[in-house]
UniProtKB/TrEMBL annotation:
Top-level taxonomic group: Bacteria
Ranges for domain TRNA-binding: 7-119
A Pfam family per the record: tRNA_bind
Protein name: tRNA-binding domain-containing protein
Molecular function in Gene Ontology: tRNA binding
Protein keywords: RNA-binding, tRNA-binding
Amino acid sequence: MSDPTCDGQTRGVVVARVLEDRPHPMAQRIRLATIDLGGSKQQVVYGGRLVLTPGQFVPAALPGARLPGRKKMRCRRYHGESSYGMVCSSDELGWTTGGPDEVAILDPELMLEPGQSLDEADERWLLRVAEVVAR
């Protein structure tokens, strides 16, 4: 993995706390998570081998957010279920390259708050996040 950098291409990504995780009722390889955004709750659809656990902190790109190399995020439907944004891997955020295509789990020792912006995270903070993701 490379050193994470904040190159200004990621905008609108916030900290989300996982409230609930469950299998998608009509698809085997994707899951549904309800996330707390600090005043509101949203459902997101995600994939990968990792199953999220209530209480974990994850990065969430909400509708209108921009990720490196991607179009602006919007609401979508996956097999009949609405997704109001996405939970992101460290690669999708541009923090690392060549990492696992799994949702990044943020270090709870960073005293994160749901809804807190990740756009202005400093380099030391990103390095610490990358260390947790690599475990």
